[in-house]
Amino acid sequence: MQHRFMSEKAGHTFKASKPRKLSRRKFLTDIARTACGVGFFGLGVGIYSKPASSLPALALRPPGALPEEAFLAACTRCGLCVRDCPYDILKLAELGADNVATGTPYFTARTGPCEMCEDIPCVPVCPTGALSHELTDINKSRMGLAVLVDQESCIAFLGLRCEVCFNVCPVRDQAIRIEPRPNLRSGHHALFIPVVYSEACTGCGLCEKACILEEAAIKVLPMRVARGELGQHYRLGWEQKDKAGGSLVAPDTEHKFNLPEGVKYDYYGRGLVDERGAAITMPGTGEAATPFSSNPLDTLNRGIREAK
Amino acid sequence: MITPLDQLGREAIAKRGWFAAHKWLLLRRLSQMSVFALFLLGPIAGIWIIKGNLSSSLLFDVVPMTDPLLFLQILSAGFTGIASAAVIGAALVLVFYLVVGGRVYCSWVCPVNIVTDTANWLRRRLNIKSSAKISVNARYWMLALTLVLSFSTGTLAYELVNPVSMLHRGLIFGMGFGWTIVLGVFLFDLLIMKHGWCGHLCPMGAFYGILGNSAFVRVRADRRADCDDCMECYEVCPEPQVLPPALKGEQKGLAPVILSGDCTNCGRCVDICGEDVFDFGLRIGRISGVGKVDGAPRAVSGHESAS
Lengths: 308, 307
Hints:
The complex is a heterodimer.
Chain A: H1 2-12, H2 24-52, E1 59-60, H3 68-74, H4 80-84, E2 91-92, E3 105-108, E4 145-148, H5 164-168, E5 176-183, E6 189-196, H6 206-210, E7 218-221, H7 223-226, H8 237-244, E8 263-266, E9 271-274, H9 296-300, H10 304-307
Antiparallel strand pairs in A: 1-3, 2-3, 4-7, 5-6, 8-9
Chain B: H1 10-16, H2 23-45, E1 50-52, E2 56-59, E3 63-66, H3 68-76, H4 84-100, H5 104-109, H6 112-125, H7 138-153, H8 163-173, H9 178-192, H10 196-201, H11 203-212, E4 217-220, H12 232-236, H13 243-248, H14 268-272, E5 279-282, E6 286-287, E7 292-293
Antiparallel strand pairs in B: 1-2, 2-3, 4-5, 6-7
């Protein structure tokens, strides 16, 4: 103990008597040591930051959150959004407990969906704009996208009336619509299927919260998981045609059915018609004449008999 | 005469009484606890004086504050569209610490200080002497690292492991396993290195230390002639390398002011000194880089006329 003090004492009577000279070798070694140590630490943190920053599919960012990469650069993890959420749905991720980048805010739709406050109090309080202040209409927020992930357990697909997700949706009848489909199992009932439209869905998660199943069949997923993307070169012909006011390729030509002179085929179910559009009927029976046999096998086997 | 370690602080206590000999330590603990209590008052009692945490906060729902180092990391991560609240908030914090001393943050606000002070206290009680050797400048490498990391990963990567924000945010918003990192810092300081984290590695300390280089509020050693070389201040000072110029620099014409940004303005030296050598004061006009001070008492001859 005494000698430790002595050495410090030697240090603090440094004065100008004997300028302390650090050998170049020691100087360089010290710098290299520090740089290596810090470098290894940095490498560790850098590698850890990748998995630690990947957002699990069921963790949703608050409304107005920038795309995930920019969000992780901008969010200071201060929790002001958490404080200003009147429904206390937001949570700052905890290390090792939430699998979300530590300290960043998120919510889980199934347990606490966004209640879609009209004044969006969580957004303007964000000091950095990680929650973009440009979002002023909550209906324009895109926290994720509801996807009916399990058609096998959704009871609407089983032929039962449910429509709970449709009814709780804050953008009712726009984000989720009920569309009737034939019930092929019974053959004579309708299925009332909830269909999500991405143009209106905010990803608030109220539908997922309300889903009556043990495990929700409709889930809000982050856009990156929920959406497909059409190749950039695709053009929808019918849209382009409307836009241009007419066909952009060759003019539509009428399909030739190789019919007798003066006879046409009517697309709207009347079978063969004459030039004036009057239906041609089969002699005797009076039924509408058609170029196709009533037995579908005849169509399938056409040509085979001749080949034999 | 050098004071043996087991006699540490006895003289000051005998001369001034226990409370006066722990004045700044007690005030510091009060300050650290108060900052923490203010942040907790909202979530616990519904009294919202300040919201958020040390990374960013909002005082009285009006005054924004943002950690300026975090602000730099955000810029370095490539996000330039920072909203005005964070810009104003970072500027406010920056100016505040430029005035009172950057590392006032470390000793008067930062919650990790209590952890590492406890580790150091225990280290003394358990008589642990071995200590790893890391340069006190390693923290500037760490500071550079935080910026390089955010630049190269595009995220605030250091925030994933930062013990300071981990502890403060954790205590207010929920800790998860964040306590393991804080425990790591504690054990590191206790078993591996004296003043290891705060004194050598913490990049936030490095950043605030840079701010502190030009701060106004300073610990002064105006009565340095009374120093009896008991070495007690060296023992308790978390950054003992800052002491010699002020304490023993008289013959070199150095002012009796601790000018290093590393000084945390913790006031332990003021408390512990039996001879009342140190006290808080202001930096007075500093001349040409060598730290000579106008009107410095008992300055080297030829400088008396300077004031």
